[in-house]
Design brief:
By secondary structure, the chain is α+β, with helices and mostly antiparallel strands. Helix content is 23%, strand content 38%. The protein has a single domain (19-161), classed as Multidrug-efflux Transporter 1 Regulator Bmrr, Chain A (Alpha-Beta Barrel). The protein is built from three helices and seven strands; from the N terminus they run E-E-H-E-E-E-H-E-H-E. It has a six-stranded antiparallel β-barrel. Strand 3 and strand 4 form a beta hairpin. The longest helix is centred in the first third of the chain and has 17 residues, at 43-59.
């Protein structure tokens, strides 16, 4: 299946990310936070925050030209807060601009959102086999729930800072 909803999530190519290593040197992102309840976000807030971030970046032409290259990364510093990072090509004046640096090993998974703990265990085993250990995880969800249902895949990319 292909994603026919052109207004929503871009088509995702797992081969671009699966078992790849990425070195980021001050990769630019804008950052937002959302409340969670034991790591479970309130779904309407995610869409609102991502839309806000997209609009802020788009207004100053700082969104990747190829929409498939846009990353929205999630990390949970606590059970009650998630941080969202939206990749941009430059500073966005109306946003919280941050830069992320380091070496990241990525692996793609396909399954429901609640499988993240299982995916993390598999990722830890994968890293261990490479002689690595994660210092921090970032999660990229390739599709929103509506698009995941439409394309028949619910891809998640785990980025492990090693």
């Amino acid at each position: 299946m292909t994603n026919t909803n052109k207004e929503c999530c871009p088509v995702f190519d797992p081969s671009k990310w699966d078992e790849k290593t990425h070195t980021w040197n001050n990769k630019k992102f804008i950052k937002e936070t959302i409340p969670t309840l034991f790591h479970i976000p309130f779904p309407p807030m995610i869409g609102k925050k991502i839309t806000k971030m997209w609009k802020a970046a788009d207004e100053v032409k700082m969104v990747e030209v190829n929409k498939q290259d846009v990353l929205v990364l999630f990390t949970d510093p606590s059970p009650f807060k998630s941080e969202l990072f939206f990749s941009v090509t430059g500073d966005v004046p109306s946003a919280n601009n941050v830069a992320i640096s380091g070496t990241f090993m990525a692996k793609v998974f396909d399954g429901p959102y609640n499988s993240i703990p299982k995916f993390l265990k598999v990722m830890d085993e994968y890293l261990s086999g490479k002689g690595k250990k994660s210092k921090k995880y970032y999660v990229h969800y390739a599709y929103c729930p509506k698009c995941a249902k439409e394309v028949g895949h619910n891809y998640t990319v785990l980025f492990a800072k090693v």
